[in-house]
């Protein structure tokens, strides 16, 4: 499980790999440095052309991290590819990028996060964003099934995560 209690502003995960927990899906994608700062400037999905260029750059970064045996960098690049897919899909389905209607009467954060109490906004399908999502999905699936990535993931888990 990803550890959100860490002091992310002061941790360099390249220098302290033992502190990195993989987590589920995209957990920590906007927290783990220096990788966030290296990858985020390239992350875009507004049009299929932009998504293609962005996903190719991030996938190449993924491969570069693997070539350096830098699992955390590769995992972060994989997370950005996944996030490119999920965010583009959200915008493909909801023009505003919001899935749920805001409830201005809700002041309790836990209630706000409770999906049962939130009203889902209607879908407004955007084929441009759907195409961007498909571009990122292809690279994300390629990254998460890469054999060297899977080997480094298992090694990281054995060294730092399994008790």
Radius of gyration: 17 Å
Q: Low-confidence runs (pLDDT<50, min 5 residues)?
A: none
Number of helices: 6
Helical amount: 40-55%
Q: In the residues, how many domains can be counted? A: 1
- Compressed to H and E, one letter per element, the order equals HHHHHH
User: How far from one another are the termini?
Assistant: 13 Å
Oligomer: single chain
Q: Give the total of beta strands.
A: 0
Instruction: Look at the helices and sheets and give the structural class.
Output: mainly alpha
Mean pLDDT: 89
Beta-strand share of residues: under 5%
3D shape: globular
Main sheet attributes: strand count, strand direction, barrel closure: none
Region (Disordered): 96-116
Protein name: Cytoplasmic protein
Pfam family, one: DUF4385
Describe the structure.
This protein has 163 residues and is mostly helical. The chain has one domain (8-96, 125-161). The chain contains six helices and no strands. The protein has helices at 35-39, 48-67, 71-93, 109-113, 127-144, 147-161. α2 (48-67) packs antiparallel against α3 (71-93), α2 (48-67) runs parallel beside α5 (127-144) and α3 runs antiparallel to α5. It starts with 34 loop residues before the first helix and ends with a helix. The model has no long low-confidence stretch (mean pLDDT 89).
């Amino acid at each position: 499980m990803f550890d959100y209690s860490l002091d992310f502003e002061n941790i360099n995960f390249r220098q302290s790999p033992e502190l990195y927990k993989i987590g589920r899906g995209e957990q920590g994608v906007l927290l783990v440095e220096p990788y966030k700062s290296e990858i985020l400037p390239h992350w875009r999905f507004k049009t299929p052309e932009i998504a293609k260029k962005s996903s190719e750059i991030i996938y190449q970064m993924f491969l570069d991290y693997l070539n350096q045996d830098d699992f955390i960098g590769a995992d972060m690049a994989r997370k950005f590819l996944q996030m490119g897919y999920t965010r583009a899909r959200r915008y493909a389905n909801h023009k505003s990028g919001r899935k749920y209607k805001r409830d201005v009467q809700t002041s309790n954060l836990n209630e706000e996060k409770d999906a049962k109490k939130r009203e889902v906004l209607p879908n407004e399908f955007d084929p441009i964003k759907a195409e961007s999502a498909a571009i990122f999905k292809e690279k994300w699936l390629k990254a998460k099934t890469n054999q060297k990535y899977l080997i480094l993931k298992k090694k990281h888990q054995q060294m730092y995560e399994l008790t």
